[in-house]
Amino acid sequence: MVGLLGRSRAQSTRRLKTPLDQEGPHGGRHRRGPSAGLRSALGGRSVAGQVFLLQVVIVLLLVVSGVVALVLQVRHDSTQEARNRSLAVAETFARAPGTPAALSAPDPTALLQSRAEAARKAANVDFIVVMSTDGIRYTHPKPDRIGKKFVGTIAPALAGHPVVEEITGTLGPLVQATVPVEAPDGKVVGLVSAGITIANVGGVADRQLPLMLTSAGVALALATGGTALVSRRLLRQTRGLGPYEMTRMYEHHDAVLHAVREGVIIVGGEGQLVLANDEANRLLDLPDDAEGRNVRDLGLDSDTADLLASGRVATDEVHLVGERLLAINQRPTDLKGGPAGSVATLRDSTELRALSGRADVARERLKLLYEAGVGIGTTLDVTRTAEELAEVAVPRFADFVTVDLADAVLNGQEPEAGTDLRRTASGGIRTDAPLYPVGEHIGFVRSTPQAHSLRTGQAVIEPDLGGSPGWLAQDLERTGRVVDYGIHSLITVPLRVGPLVMGVVNFWRSEKPEPFDSEDRALAEELVARAAVSIDNARRYTREHTMAVTLQRSLLPRSFPGQSALDIAYRYLPAQAGVGGDWFDVLPLPGARVAVVVGDVVGHGLHAAATMGRLRTAVHNFSALDLPPDELLGLLDELVGRIDQDEETEDSRAAVTGATCLYAIYDPTSRLCTVARAGHPPPAVVRPDGSVDFPEVPAGPPLGLGGLPFETAELELAEGSRLVLYTDGLVEDRDRDIDSGLELLRTALAGADRSPEDTCRAVLDALLPPRPSDDIALIVARTQALGADRIAEWQVPSDPAAVAEVRASVTRQLAEWGLDEMSFTTELILSELVTNAIRYGSGPIRIRVLRDRSLICEVFDGSSTSPHLRQAAITDEGGRGLFLVAQMAERWGTRYNPSGKVIWAEQPLP
Questions:
Q1: Which residue range or ranges hold the GAF domain (predicted)?
Q2: How far apart are CA 528 and CA 372, in angstroms?
Q3: Are 269 and 276 in contact (CB under 8 A)?
């Protein structure tokens, strides 16, 4: 080290002699004047002179490059300007009014020459030539060239496309554009060419070149002055600095090198140690004669020695040297022409690593808490929230996690104090752990940590399960298997929100040999506290959802009335995220007909369910009037509008934001189905052969909008067809539009010989999403036909004497059906109804008797007058006919059709 310093000092003394200190002719020293120093500095052998020459060359190159670039740019811009101007002038003149007509005149030159010259001068171009399609000039700035052949390309212009070309003419390099002149019918009747010499467009370079040269001269002058100033300052700063001062600077540098608290090592190109400061000697425990020896021979570990000998770049590489962790940074010294070798710095990071480890643990725990806040409570489902807690904690915090909740919490209720819980969720690094399975009802004994947590509301740590008699007493056989499995430590934390304790969460450890500690307990409590809020929210939502579902199901039909026209199967699935307003119904109508209705109220919650109940009740009432589907939807539309008006005055949030409905009436005697819809998806029809189609049913506006009438469509359905009605929740979802849903529905419905139940099952298997976001209502109705052997019809003349024949015909028909005991009441009913039709109605009069679940008598007439039941006085001679009909029949009524009305009466079959 001393020898190195000696050599360095000697070399430094020789090297730091400045040019200012020169020996005179008599051996003495003298200083050169400033002018001499400046001339030396600006000479080509000095650095300042070289910088000066380099700057001059760079400035000259920039000036030359700028001039060349300017000339090229101006030439390009001039050519482009000439092309644009010539094309614009030619197209403008070709499209000018009168140009096509002038070309068709006997003497185009007389009409166009003066105009072309005026346009040429105004546009500042060199020529505008109008020519025929053969290229013969009609105009030219020089009249002697009129009538001669045009020089240029005209074939593209004759095809209707403008052409721009660069040529060298008598005026020099120029650009000319040739465009077609088109007649109104699109035919090319002539050509127009405009040209301009490029020299007439230029001129920019002549104006900018002096400015460029002036700027270059100024830059050159500034560069020369700047170089002179830098050289003078360099000379001034080094004046008077001799060898002694330079040596002292080196000694100061050496003192600083050995005083720093970071090891510094310089290794030569051959791997020998050139220099090591005091801190490096201490950190590496180097021998006294280390300098000059190869680093591989200094007793260092192989990894550290290989790194120092390799000379490669290293950044904060950590190596274990003895009991220290050293962070090593290394860079080669020959990157910019320096001597071969490398410089390495060493920093003791043992304590820093320990702090960093603790910081990493804290960071991981904060990250776990953040992910718990994001990943727990994504749904309002109690079970799913418990599962999310287990998923977040395994395996980052515990090897196994189990969540036990009271049954009341799962049902949305507040639990009572107790130790009986149900295992709701479980997660672990393996699936074969002998813990209680999910769904198991667990009664914790009083000595267990779980029971203690439920009583006190505090978390409990069991560091050694094998030595915990309180926990082992829960189930000796199972707890023994748990310990044998390798689970050795437990933290149990109560799921608590305020004073309400809903259950416990158990964190089990098996892989890490260390038991849980107090820091782990704090983290577990924080995790469970966050999950408890989400579980309580889900519990409250479950309660509200259960109430809404209960209300909704109480408003939906529990069973359908008996009828023979349709074989019905249905499905109703409430949404997972909230109860909606979907509803459906099947309503028997007079004449063996059946009405099927399905609707949807937009929105979720109790209000949607209550609105649905009001609409369903209204449809029941309106269907009792036996109205056509379009008229019934019209009345329903008015009702929804009135509901909105009434509720807007009280609470705008309670207004019906939208409702849709589809109403269909099927007649088994004619196999006709009359359908109308208000903003609802169309029905699907599955033919007996298994083919599926969606009939064109006019789509009316949703209920409550008003303003437009509803329309009906009549569908003829073969016996055994399946009519499918549904709500939009079946075919539309967040990830699926309605068109894709309808295609999936078509595929699921296809197939013959399926019962309505099988059809419902197939549809839900194909279209039901994992977690429906909207209610789903589905009805599948297979059509039945009322055979001709169960229908009897007669035409009745408008003569009271015909009533006797009617009674006789009916009696015979009832005898054929085996209903002789019903003859008397049927004759009486028909006699009264036919007599009223003859007396008060109008022809034609027709009777129809249907044998279905009941015996139905119908009397058709052409009058729209409705009969009324009244109580006849004792002295009245008439007025008791309808009263008798009402007494004899189970039900009776009137319905209207386009040709009149029908009075009907039903009697139960014996």
A1: 381-545
A2: 9
A3: no
